């Protein structure tokens, strides 16, 4: 059935409008939400009459969700809107793209609010309890801390899947990531995460369905929310429903799986759950020891005891499945204990599998204890039991395919072994061939060990080296401590320059000066290192934009090609954190308003149908530039100018520069959509953009050509802590002008000076008349030079506005560590902070914008 | 009840001189005493804020207590000192320097030597005086530094408002 094609024009229009609305929706915009709600009800009716039950249910749930946002019953409105957005995307797939409803999935979050749409949906497990991983809070915290970057990687891979040439490696990388995550989640007892990852892996295993990326992004969102919830931020999302995967009959459960009945005493069961977790945790730790030191008998005994205890209590409580598993593992360990079986990584793998399975079982018992339902049998158990038995029989020759492998490490094992000198290159190549010809695909280490080419210990060492590559990557440091360190380095730099200045005045021996030079070099290096400590790449932020563009293009139906460049450019962490919001606004504007909504318009303008948005970052002249370029319709200079005149922002008869005109869009409330262009105006949130960038001491510049597109160029300082400053003297005071604001400094000649209306002085520079202010008058400093031709004119710029500041002389230029003047002085107009000068005194840093305002107010 | 209030004021005070008068400052508020140093004036701030200094890498404001109390200013001498105090600001503990003519000594004042602040009339604000101590025939005005300095903030606000 293709519901889109049988004369349902209105429904297509309706869904399209809904999609348009949801892109703009904000939890606070009640009217828009109500509008959406109304449309959804109609669509639901339609879906019900068309027999699209799943769609009708999903839309009903979405409508209810929207209602929840309106009534503020939903804790996280934005997240709920996200879900609604995805539901609408799925709906679009059915109605507009004419997909069969069976192959379209609706966001799983909705299912919790409604009945499962189809009968074959298996019952979902209740959300995991957070108390489960609380046993090992630090491990969990550590795990969560790492997930931000993992999720970023996952998202990147998902986005890459959509491009045909990157699809394969991306899918493989994604699989690895999900697999690792699955393993870790399993270890922490996050059953739902584990399950979802597992299903996603299955999805990636086969040929990818069309909507794979959507499904996977939903998975990623779910994971992000779960991790946020575990970190105490936001509510725990409902577990993901089963992912749409290639129909594959569930493996028929073996007839004789023992099951866990939970008829035992609840109190005893509860105790058992806690104890078992502790035992399994301990067993895991000892297994890790064994992996590196297989001869450690104490560890063997400990693991044995853990299984033994679990077996005993499980038997007592009638948890026969746990009992059986623990029993088999115990027998295996017994053999090891009696030296009948040697420990190798395979044995350890099997025991790890067992502890994992036991943890799952224990979680299952807890869940059924809470829900009252009987614990489901774990289908993996029979295979695992079989594997344990075979391992116990010393059946090492049989290649046992342990479910968790395929992890392609960062460095090849063979390479490490060759590096260590354990094996020759030929041996590795031979082994690789053997490995490839063997259908069981044994691990390279195993092949080499079997061939007698290398000792297992060396393999383990190599494996450790392989893993340690990851471990060495980062050291986590408290941000406060880091700040303190950077601050101290700043002090050191100052102290050093004080010493060197004092030494220049006195008579010092050559040796002393040499040492001082050395010290100078070291401090400089230290300063650079200190600054670099706080630097992080923009990658994560850019990644988010890629996702945003993708979502926007889906929702608006515009084809957008998104190009990123320079995402490895590093910036101060504070800057990176704060640049995200403005970028979202600007990228959104570029896609929503910059690009033409009708591809035909683009073709007519001689551009390709597919819009292009480019986000790039680069270094230039000690600053970082972030630019957002679109090849859309560009800003309409005349329309903005007319609007500016209308609003009185530009006086009649004045001819502002292009820059001044484009800067108008940053005015608060400037863009009342339709009046600038036909559809809607650029400038939604542009005022926010401007303010955010100002607070980072950055500047925005717009370059645009009507019909060709626009570039928004953001210039940012490398770091917030240090600036380049020009030190000037005014009377007996010294001030620092940020070099970023200085255009040029000149000694004025009488011919360059003129007076306007008998009071305001002007300086003519490069054919422009620039208003001139005396810094001594602005700051009421005594004893400054009054004759402009004997003073120094510094042309400064703020917000595209140029003025001349008259100072007595230029003392020098230097890097300056910014310090706040302290709360008690508060905000001083015209001064942005203080800095410690090389002579130990405090110098004040000018806030050029503030000085200009002060000067103008004083007139 | 009154005694209880006075009792809590008993303790060690750092005394200093200002235009011939002796003032006391709770010793716990004092971080250190430093000699007079070069102060950078901050434009557009009230007269009593002398400016900012570099205290081992930290920029702290310094106020001239003479001007703060409405006395005429006086040339700095080699006895002029900056007492660095910590006080509770609006949000956090702040550090500030106060310039005094001369630092005297640390004295212990018993509660029975402390008297309530006498009323000087409506136009004299005595909120920032904890009480009056009598030590060896001399009168010591015990200052409530938190009040003194937060009064300053108000003054700044007022002054800024009048400038607008």
CATH structural fold name of chain B: OB fold (Dihydrolipoamide Acetyltransferase, E2P)
Counting structural domains of chain B, the number is 1
How many DSSP E strands of chain B? 11
H-E string of chain B: HEEEEEHEEEEEEH
CATH class of chain B: Mainly Beta
Description of the structure:
The complex is a heterodimer of chains A (859) and B (164). Chain A has 859 residues and is of the alpha+beta class. Chain A has 28 helices and 18 strands. Chain A folds into seven domains: 3-112; 133-230, Four Helix Bundle (Hemerythrin (Met), subunit A) (Up-down Bundle); 266-392, HPT domain (Four Helix Bundle (Hemerythrin (Met), subunit A)), CATH 1.20.120.160; 413-467; 479-534, Histidine kinase  CheA-like, homodimeric domain (Helix Hairpins); 536-717, Histidine kinase-like ATPase, C-terminal domain (Heat Shock Protein 90), CATH 3.30.565.10; 722-858, CheA-289, Domain 4 (OB fold (Dihydrolipoamide Acetyltransferase, E2P), Beta Barrel). Chain A has a six-stranded mixed β-sheet with strand order 10-14-15-13-12-11. The longest helix of chain A is centred in the N-terminal third of the chain and has 27 residues, at 266-292. Chain A is globular, with a radius of gyration of 34 Å. Chain B is an alpha+beta fold. Chain B has a single domain, classed as Beta Barrel (OB fold (Dihydrolipoamide Acetyltransferase, E2P)), CATH 2.40.50. Helix content of chain B is 18%, strand content 45%. In chain B, β10 (129-135) and β11 form a beta hairpin. Chain A binds chain B through residues 487, 490-491, 494, 733-734, 778-781, 819-826, 828-831, 834, 836, 840-844, 854, and chain B through 38, 40-45, 49, 51-54, 56-61, 89-92, 94-96, 149, 152-153, 156.
């Amino acid at each position: 059935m293709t519901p889109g094609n049988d004369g349902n024009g209105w429904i297509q229009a309706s869904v399209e409008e809904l999609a348009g609305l949801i892109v703009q929706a904000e939890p606070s915009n009640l009217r828009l939400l109500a509008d959406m709600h109304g449309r959804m009800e109609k669509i639901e009716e339609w879906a019900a009459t068309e027999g699209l039950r799943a769609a009708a249910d999903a839309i009903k749930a979405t409508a209810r969700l929207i209602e929840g946002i309106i009534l503020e019953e939903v804790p996280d409105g934005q997240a709920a809107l996200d879900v609604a957005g995805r539901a609408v995307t799925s709906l679009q797939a059915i109605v507009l793209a004419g997909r069969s409803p069976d192959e379209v999935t609706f966001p799983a979050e909705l299912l919790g609010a409604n009945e499962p749409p189809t009968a074959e949906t298996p019952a979902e497990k209740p959300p995991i309890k957070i108390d489960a991983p609380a046993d090992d809070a630090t491990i969990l915290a550590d795990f969560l801390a790492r997930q931000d970057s993992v999720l970023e990687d996952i998202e990147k891979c998902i986005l890459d899947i959509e491009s045909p040439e990157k699809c394969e490696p991306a899918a493989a990388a994604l699989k690895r990531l999900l697999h690792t995550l699955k393993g870790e989640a399993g270890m922490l007892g996050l059953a739902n995460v584990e399950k979802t990852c597992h299903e996603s892996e299955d999805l990636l295993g086969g040929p990818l369905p069309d909507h794979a990326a959507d499904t996977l992004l939903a998975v990623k969102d779910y994971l992000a929310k779960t991790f946020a919830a575990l970190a105490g931020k936001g509510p725990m999302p409902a577990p993901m429903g089963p992912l749409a995967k290639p129909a594959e009959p569930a493996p028929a459960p073996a007839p004789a799986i023992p099951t866990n009945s939970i008829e035992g005493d609840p109190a005893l069961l509860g105790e058992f759950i806690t104890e078992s977790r502790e035992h399994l945790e301990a067993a895991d730790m000892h297994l890790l020891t064994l992996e590196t030191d297989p001869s450690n008998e104490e560890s063997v005994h400990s693991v044995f005891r853990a299984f033994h205890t679990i077996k005993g209590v499980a038997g007592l409580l009638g948890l026969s499945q746990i009992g059986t598993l623990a029993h088999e593992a115990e027998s295996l360990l017994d053999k090891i204990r009696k030296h009948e079986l040697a420990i190798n990584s395979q044995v350890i793998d099997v025991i790890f599998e067992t502890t994992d399975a036991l943890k799952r079982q224990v979680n299952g018992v807890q869940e059924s204890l809470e829900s009252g339902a009987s614990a489901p049998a774990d289908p993996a158990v029979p295979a695992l039991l079989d594997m344990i038995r075979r391992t116990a029989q010393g059946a090492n020759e049989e290649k046992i395919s342990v479910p968790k492998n395929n992890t392609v490490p960062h460095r090849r094992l063979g390479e490490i072994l060759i590096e260590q000198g354990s094996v020759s290159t030929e041996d590795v190549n031979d082994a690789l061939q053997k490995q490839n010809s063997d259908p069981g695909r044994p691990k390279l280490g195993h092949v080499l060990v079997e061939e007698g080419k290398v000792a297992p210990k060396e393999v383990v060492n190599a494996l450790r080296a392989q893993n340690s590559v990851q471990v060495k990557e980062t050291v986590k440091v408290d941000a406060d401590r880091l700040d303190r360190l950077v601050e101290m380095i700043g002090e050191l730099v100052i102290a050093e320059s004080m010493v060197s200045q004092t030494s220049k005045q006195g008579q010092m021996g050559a040796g002393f000066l040499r040492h001082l030079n050395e010290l100078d070099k070291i401090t400089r290096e230290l300063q650079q290192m200190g600054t670099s400590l706080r630097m992080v790449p923009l990658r994560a932020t850019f990644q988010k934009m890629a996702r945003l563009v993708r979502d926007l293009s889906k929702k608006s139906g515009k084809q957008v090609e998104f190009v990123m460049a320079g995402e490895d450019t590093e910036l101060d962490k504070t800057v990176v954190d704060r640049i995200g919001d403005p970028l979202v606004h600007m990228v959104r504007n570029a896609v929503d308003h910059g690009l033409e909504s009708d591809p035909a318009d683009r073709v007519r303008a001689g551009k390709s149908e597919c819009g292009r948005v480019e986000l790039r970052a680069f270094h230039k002249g000690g600053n970082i530039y972030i630019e957002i370029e679109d090849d859309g319709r560009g800003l309409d200079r005349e329309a903005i100018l007319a609007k500016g005149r209308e609003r009185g922002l530009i006086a009649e008869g004045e001819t502002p520069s292009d820059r001044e005109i484009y800067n108008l869009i940053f005015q608060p409330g400037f863009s009342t959509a339709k009046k600038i262009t036909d559809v809607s105006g650029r400038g939604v949130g542009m005022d926010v953009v401007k303010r955010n960038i100002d607070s980072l001491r950055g500047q925005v510049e717009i370059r645009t050509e009507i019909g060709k597109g626009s570039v928004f160029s953001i210039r940012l300082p490398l770091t917030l802590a240090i600036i380049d400053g020009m030190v000037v003297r005014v009377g007996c005071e010294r001030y620092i002008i940020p070099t970023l604001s200085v255009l040029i400094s000149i000694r004025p000649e009488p011919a360059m000076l003129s007076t306007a209306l008998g009071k305001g002085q002007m300086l003519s520079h490069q054919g422009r008349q620039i208003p001139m202010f005396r810094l001594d008058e602005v700051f009421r400093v005594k004893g400054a030079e009054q004759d402009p031709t004997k003073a120094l004119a510094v042309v400064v710029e703020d917000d595209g506005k140029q003025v001349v500041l008259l100072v007595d002389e230029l003392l020098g230029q230097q890097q300056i560590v910014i310090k706040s003047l302290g709360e008690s002085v508060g905000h001083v107009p015209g001064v942005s902070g203080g800095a410690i000068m090389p002579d130990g005194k405090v110098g004040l840093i000018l806030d050029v914008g503030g000085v200009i305002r002060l000067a103008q107010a004083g007139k | 009840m009154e005694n209880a209030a006075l009792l809590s004021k008993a303790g060690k005070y750092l005394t200093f001189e200002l235009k011939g008068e002796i003032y006391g400052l709770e010793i716990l508020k004092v971080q250190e005493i430093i000699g007079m140093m070069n102060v950078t004036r901050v434009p557009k701030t009230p007269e009593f804020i002398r400016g900012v200094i570099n205290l081992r890498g930290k920029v702290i404001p310094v106020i001239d207590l003479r001007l703060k109390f409405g006395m005429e200013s006086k040339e700095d001498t080699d006895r002029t000192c900056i007492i660095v105090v910590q006080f509770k600001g609006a949000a956090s503990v702040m550090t500030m320097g106060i310039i005094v003519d001369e630092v005297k000594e640390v004295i212990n004042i018993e509660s029975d030597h402390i008297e309530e602040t006498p009323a000087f009339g409506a136009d004299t604000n005595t909120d920032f005086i904890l009480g009056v101590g009598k030590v060896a025939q001399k009168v010591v005005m015990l200052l409530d530094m938190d009040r003194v300095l937060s009064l300053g903030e108000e003054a700044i606000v007022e002054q800024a408002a009048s400038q607008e």
